Amino acid sequence: MSLKVVVIGGVALGPKAACRIKRVAPDAEVTLVDASKLISYGGCGIPYYVSGDVSDHQQLQETSFHMVRDEQFFQDCKDFKVMTETRALSIDRKAKTVLVQAKDGTQTTLPYDKLVLGMGSTPRKLPIPGRELDNVFTVSTLGEAIRIKEKVASGSVGSAVIVGGGFIGLEMAESFADMWGIETTVIEVADQIMPGFMSKAMATIAEKHLAESDVTVRTSEMVQAIEGEDGKVTRVVTNKGAIDADLVILAVGVIPNDILAREAGLSCSERGGIIVSKTMQTSDPDIYAGGDCVVVENIVTGKIGYFPLGSLANSQGRIIGTNVAGGRETFDGVVGTYIIKLFDLAFSGTGLSLPVALREGFDAFSAHVIMSDHSHFYPKRDMVSLEIVVERRSGRVLGLQGACQNGDSLKGRIDTMAAILKFRPTLRDVSSLEMAYAPPFGSAMDVLNAAANTAENMLVGRNVSIQPTEFAKLWENRASENLLCIDTREWGNAEPFVNKHPDFWKNIPQGQIRGRLDEIPRDKKIVLLCNTGGRSYESQVILRHAGFLEPVNLQGGMGFIKQLGFDPSQEE
């Protein structure tokens, strides 16, 4: 008798699991059920459909050879049945059946030997008045994305407000402002965008770049109501005032769709999400689950967490398909790897940001570096900014975040770190990591190696540094702090700063430090700086050897500071 499998959920995990089952066990009878008509689409491509980069929504459903993944495609090409516009109502684990209901109200009982749950997630609802007004959207489904694009393409939207500064909200902000020229505002309740994923410094770089691209970012602000006229949204009211809006996107996170599992008595997390084993089995060994409806282990912290990422759903779907068909593969957990494009810059990360590492109880610090993604003498190159997060006691690397105009360059470094984080790498491991090298592609000492080297020097006390955000605060209070910046670059770089702030900025090039020790006061708070932090570090070594123990080195140098939007030479 052939294996009977029912799969609930038809976006990412479900189709992947179903296709894998049929490849491994061709005789299996597989039925996939989904409440929507549109299935098996690239949900992460929705912002690019809204922007117009992807011209037709059907492209998000197409295979690489331009076949649309609909019911007929899966029947003809993959040999399993798909029931769209059909909702799963309940699971009878004892009888091993699923009760489903079609669009016309007809109910059917589907028997199973194995059941796969891939119900995904639902946008979190803000408990505020006005969220039901016309032109207020979430970005949860392809169907909703189609309606959003119809609105903006009609020319009736002049202003938009995005509530939530996470990945989806920011990608939608770019879509509106870049392609459609819509006046766009992002509101985030936290004190930075992408909270939990980036440090304050990295988030500030992103906020500055968004502002340069005509997107207004308002952090530490809470939405209190959405108001409208004649049933249509006209403004968003926050604790700091009102903002005009012809369209509103609510992008404040998602919650796992676990109600069906809970009602069936399966083990679920108190915070939401189905609990699964490494083989992706639920508390019922005949029921598997994956994607946005489950919680899995964070490999870095060892704790259970929620990671609604399309890449993970596809990976878990393949594992589930193999195991349902009689194999045994495991999903070891997540390190939390992401990348996002915001206009001309890419931002990416893996593992823990410094704020999250501290919150999780690690005694951690971070090191900032900025360096060319290709050899410094190669004519075409971009600057990569990296922040590496490290546990002090062990030197274990906990995470890496970065920004670069060349997204491929950044992605390569982040992916490299993501691949080794599960093995608990130390700074020495990353410092000696073998990276492919040729001048058009990298440096002999890659920026990833350099980040580890910098952090190692900080760990042993050889590089006593100050973070860019701390330096910015210090500069604001430079008089009361008795600050003196010693610029170790050549005069051409240092001149505008010295001329602008002669009492607080002094130029001593790194090659002249040894001969000018008598010019360095011992009664001031001294910060050494250069373009990237390299020459100022060399200068610090010289000074410490000469008995100057107080000067600190600016991490990432002026290159990183300028990315934050801080330029003392331009101050009034």
Secondary structure elements and pairings:
Elements: E1 4-8, H1 13-24, E2 29-33, H2 46-51, H3 71-78, E3 81-83, E4 86-92, E5 97-102, E6 107-111, E7 114-117, E8 121-123, E9 136-137, H4 142-153, E10 159-163, H5 167-179, E11 183-188, H6 200-212, E12 215-219, E13 223-229, E14 232-238, E15 241-244, E16 247-250, E17 254-256, H7 259-263, E18 274-275, E19 287-289, E20 294-297, E21 304-305, H8 310-324, E22 338-342, E23 345-351, H9 354-359, E24 364-372, E25 383-391, E26 397-404, H10 407-421, H11 427-431, H12 447-459, E27 465-466, H13 468-476, E28 483-487, H14 491-500, E29 505-507, E30 525-529, H15 534-545, E31 552-554, H16 557-563
Parallel strand pairs: 1-2, 1-7, 2-3, 7-19, 9-16, 10-11, 10-16, 11-12, 18-20, 27-31, 28-29, 28-30, 30-31
Antiparallel strand pairs: 4-5, 5-6, 8-17, 13-14, 14-15, 20-21, 22-23, 23-26, 24-25, 25-26
Helix pairs in contact: 1-8
Number of domains: 4
Number of DSSP strand runs: 31
Question: From the helix content, strand content and strand pairing, which structural class follows?
Answer: alpha/beta
Overall body shape: globular
Q: Strand count, sense and closure of the main sheet?
A: 5 strands, parallel
Quaternary state of the chains: single chain
Q: Treating each run of at least 4 consecutive H or I residues as one helix, how many helices?
A: 16
**β-sheet strand percentage:** 25-35%
At the fold tier of CATH, the topology name of the largest domain is: FAD/NAD(P)-binding domain
What's the rounded overall pLDDT mean? 95
